Amino acid sequence: MLPDNSKSHTRRKFINKVSAVTLGSMLFGSYANARQDKKREVMNTKRTAGKLGIALVGLGKYSGGQLAPALQETEHCFLAGIVTGTPEKAKDWKSKYDIPDGNIYNYENFASIKDNPAIDIIYVVLPNALHAEYVIKAAAAGKHVICEKPMAINVEECDRMIDACKKTGVMLSIGYRLHFEPHTQEMIRLSKDKVVGKVKKIIAKDGMSKVEGWRLNKALAGGGPLMDVGIYCVQGACYVSGMDPIAVKAKEGPKTKPEMFRDIEQSLSWEMEFPDGTIAACESSYAEDMNLLHVDAEKGWFELSPAYSYRGITGKTSEGKIDLPGVTQQAGQMDDFAMAIKDKRATPVPGEMGRRDLKILMAIYKAMDSGQRVEIS
Ligand code: NAD
User: Fold this and answer.
1) pLDDT of 15
2) Pocket lining: 107 vs ligand 1, CB cutoff 6 Å
3) How far is the CA of 323 from the centre of ligand 1 (A)?
């Protein structure tokens, strides 16, 4: 039988052995973790090298369904950060997109984003009535800004947003993705080059039959389908004609669900009059699916249908099919903005364009409410 002290000696030896093994595995574990972290850091550096960092503000359907996936394709910018009021979303996005804790913000600590050199661009993807507040805050943080459409809910807000960005010397662009879409660019070329003669009439329709949430609340949306999807008809008529309208007329459509559309229109139709006499006849609705941009010219016609979707835009002319590849519009849009910043050139979709469109939208509402032709100065 071994003496007690030798028993405890053996126990001590055993504990030492176990501790050595534990320490070894702990050391190996932390060594493996450190290697993993290093590997991830190297991969991230490769993934993000030379690219500008974008932080998305508001992680709703458009951010989650379109912008974040598009940011996996971009070559000049990447998803660097997020701003969200929902801790659960922060957790999901962090693991899905490998976003460091230091680049995750909420609406309370948003202003501290100014101290984060990893964020170059702030992309505001909130309900329309919150665009002005967050664009102005982003500008105050010294970050370039992309703001979703419609730029704001009135022209005065647009003025304040443009001024704020000018004051701190940051660039402001609007999320007008279709300017980076090949079929849309072809429509602009067909019109500009008068391929089937001079444009005489434009027909633009955009509507959806399902709508919910803040889009039904005038205080947050600023209006009904005109603000949300009708804006694409306004945009289409302007980029195809290459002009800004001088006057509008408008008429509200019937309300089949008055309890749902208490303080916003359910549908409307309007006409835009351009300086050379071209007329754009437009319709927008929350009661019907519509998606068309049609142009009648002197010797023929050309059109897109669907014209404003994320995917599947299809075109034809009186001469045949417009056969072009589909692209991820949002990737092209965000890459172009990143390049504009790097090259110190203007963006083709600046805040001033967003402001012009708000001016037109407000004139359409004025015409709808008054029943009068409203001139746009
Ligand atoms: P959404 O409702 O899916 O997301 C809105 C986000 O804002 C949510 O994450 C919500 O939590 C957050 N939020 C913060 N404060 C809020 C408040 N007070 N009330 C409600 N939500 C609040 O909306 P969405 O479809 O992602 O639209 C967001 C913006 O993007 C809108 O301006 C919309 O017009 C624009 N958008 C643009 C396109 C496009 O093709 N360019 C497509 C869809 C939406």
Assistant:
1) 42
2) no
3) 33
